[in-house]
Write a structure and sequence with these properties.
With 397 residues, the chain is mainly beta. The chain has helices at 251-254, 342-351, 380-384, and strands at 25-28, 38-43, 49-55, 60-65, 70-74, 79-84, 92-97, 103-108, 112-117, 123-128, 133-138, 144-149, 155-159, 165-169, 177-182, 188-193, 198-202, 207-212, 220-225, 231-236, 241-245, 257-259, 267-272, 278-283, 287-292, 297-303, 309-314, 320-325, 329-334, 353-357, 364-368.
């Protein structure tokens, strides 16, 4: 797993083989008789699929690959409808798109960051860097792009309109930056690194406001925010995920919430659901894990990829999970009824978790039976709407 990025190994630049036919394959959750999750296998890339996203109100998928291409897929048909190619000359490490789905940013081991017009498929601009670009992200307002560089362990903030450099933070970390992203308020950049450190850098003050040293015991490979920016989740090669209360700084006194015993291998990626009730992670053990964020336990494991899971995404309606892998495929997992499959029920019973009804929206949510049910009477989504309430419980002492 050594390489320029915590997500995987930058591959040699030999010419990739021709891709297999782009026909989706449907099946019932393979390799786990208790999972019973329906899925689609999307084939079209001919090398590691490094990054994936839902877009256009969950009707399309965006993916990029070490095969130097980016593809836009139709979810229903399971086939590519647009291909962005012939611009990058080395593996694409990540892609990031604006909320309005009009522009896409890609980063590559060819030492460039590029912006693309989603409608025409044309490249709008390119920025050359001194070293491999391991990660990229565009702010929610579409104004800035941040990229993580292996050269000088730096982050670079670029004006998304005219491609000029806004800030270049040299030696931001002590080792390779594996992932960087903006918070939802477009005010701070979170970055994680092989140096096991989390940093939050303020765009206005142009200074680091939060540093968490030794946040994990091994390389931190990914990070993501809840939609309100209150919490940050990190994934690590130490086989754990951690949820940090960034808004209040509560982690300084009680530590983060730790999600463990979910993967047998290094965790490569993580993402929150829109309502923050669910965390999805992918790992080098070829599996995807679904975590109950409120109760802090693994609900379900999805198995079937033939190699490392590089990235994961979840649809806004929480019906679909998307995963991309070093096996050159993407998989669409239908988790609409995931709470009712035998594996999820077994996991819930083992953890002593009960389903209770939210007093506000009247929807069911899970709660550990050892929790004080008088204190937690609302689901995560309703607690998100109440800034005075914590979204997640503190970890047990």
């Amino acid at each position: 797993m050594a390489g320029a990025s915590g997500r995987g190994d930058p591959l040699a630049l030999e010419e990739p083989p021709l891709p297999r036919p782009s026909q989706p394959e449907s099946r019932l959750g393979d390799r786990d008789r208790l999972a019973q999750i329906h899925l689609k296998i999307l084939r079209g890339h001919c090398d590691t699929v490094s990054s994936c996203h839902f877009c256009f109100e969950d009707t399309k998928i965006l993916s990029c690959s070490y095969d130097r291409t980016m593809k836009l897929w139709d979810v229903e048909k399971g086939v590519p409808v647009q291909v962005f190619e012939e611009e990058h000359t080395a593996p694409i490490s990540e892609c990031s798109l604006t909320p309005d789905n009009k522009r896409v940013i890609t980063s590559s081991y060819d030492k460039t960051v590029k912006a693309w017009d989603m409608e025409t498929g044309k490249m709008l601009w390119t920025v050359d860097q001194e070293g491999l670009v391991t990660s990229c992200n565009i702010s929610c307002d579409g104004k800035y792009v941040v990229s993580g560089l292996d050269m000088e362990n730096a982050i670079c903030v670029t004006d998304a309109l005219n491609a000029t450099t806004v800030a270049y933070v040299q030696d931001h970390h002590r080792s390779t930056i594996t992932r960087c992203c903006f918070d939802p308020d477009n005010e701070r950049v979170s970055s994680v690194s092989s140096d096991k450190t989390i940093k939050l850098w303020d765009i206005i003050a142009q200074s680091t406001t939060i540093t968490v040293n030794e946040a994990h015991t091994n390389v931190i490979s990914d990070c993501c925010f809840t939609i309100d920016g209150h919490y940050l989740c990190t994934a690590s090669w130490d086989k754990t995920l951690k949820i940090w209360d960034i808004k209040t700084g509560e982690f300084r006194y009680h530590g983060p919430i730790c999600l463990n015993q979910g993967h047998e291998g290094s965790v490569s990626s993580c993402v929150f659901s829109k309502d923050a009730s669910l965390v999805v992670s992918g790992a080098y053990d070829k599996t995807i894990a679904l975590w109950d964020a409120g109760a802090g336990y693994k609900k379900l494991a999805l198995k079937g990829h033939g190699d490392w899971v590089m990235d994961v995404a979840i649809s806004n309606n929480k019906k679909w999970i998307l995963s991309s892998s070093k096996d050159a495929t993407l998989r669409l997992w239908n988790i609409e009824k995931a709470d009712h499959v035998p594996a999820a029920i077994e996991s819930r019973n083992t953890r002593g978790t009960k389903i209770v009804q939210c007093e506000e929206c009247e929807k069911p949510f899970s709660l550990l039976q050892c929790d004080d049910s008088e204190a937690v009477t609302k689901c995560v989504f309703c607690r998100l709407a109440s800034p005075s309430r914590n979204i997640l419980p503190l970890p047990p002492l």
